[in-house]
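This follows on from our talk about sequence and fold. Go ahead and set the record down below:
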Amino acid sequence: MSKLFDLTGKVAVALGGNSTLGGSMAKGLAEHGAKVAIVGRNLDTAEEVVKEIKNAGGEAKAFKADVSDLSTVESVATEIEEWSGGWDILLNAPGMNSTTPYLELTTEEWDKIMDVNLKGIVFATQIFAKKMVEQQRGGSIINISSVSSTTPLSKVFTYSASKAAINSVTQYLAREFAPHNIRVNAIIPGFFPAEQNRKILSEDRVQSIMNHTPIKRFGDPEELQGATVYLASDKASGFVTGELLRVDGGFGSMTI
């Protein structure tokens, strides 16, 4: 069974790999043999993830880029190609959130969130996917969605809209890249405490989350590694594309 999840010889690019969830998923890829480029807006936090990977015996390097500034993504793609020669796996984990109510939302805030969560992902994927097509060796693109993409949550209007769009983009690109043997899937995480969502996790909201999560707890970031490695592996998920894979403690199965 271990051969199914062996990523030895593969190169992964982890956009947002310096974040809590993105970093954990990147470490999972490295643990299974992938050489990982950790890309983030903050180079110091990216370096911290690289250090953890190297201490565990893996291979990684930190790069600085902001998906809302595509010129930096183009530059970093060139840097990563010089370092690795190409890539087989693209993990799209950047994200931005806001608690602004709909009636108070401004176009500036809408654009800021969409530039990271949707526009940035769409066009960063375009940059990295072009190389994957040229290489003619297939590959895997993994997008990070959210439980709010299928059942919109209160207090995160723009975030929910951006993640719903990511689901559509995932399935569209699955069809687009299938002739090139490049699979495109998304992971739908449930509630994992991270810096991005701490500001909305009031006591009442936490209780509401627990009431709608059958497992009755938050997820641990390491619990996203299995799904990530599975979707990255051609051997384990070679016939899986366009899938929206929930890792949410049952949140999506609950109503009232």
Q: What stands out?
A: The radius of gyration is 17 Å. Helices lie at 20-31, 43-55, 70-84, 107-135, 157-177, 203-211, 225-232, 234-237.
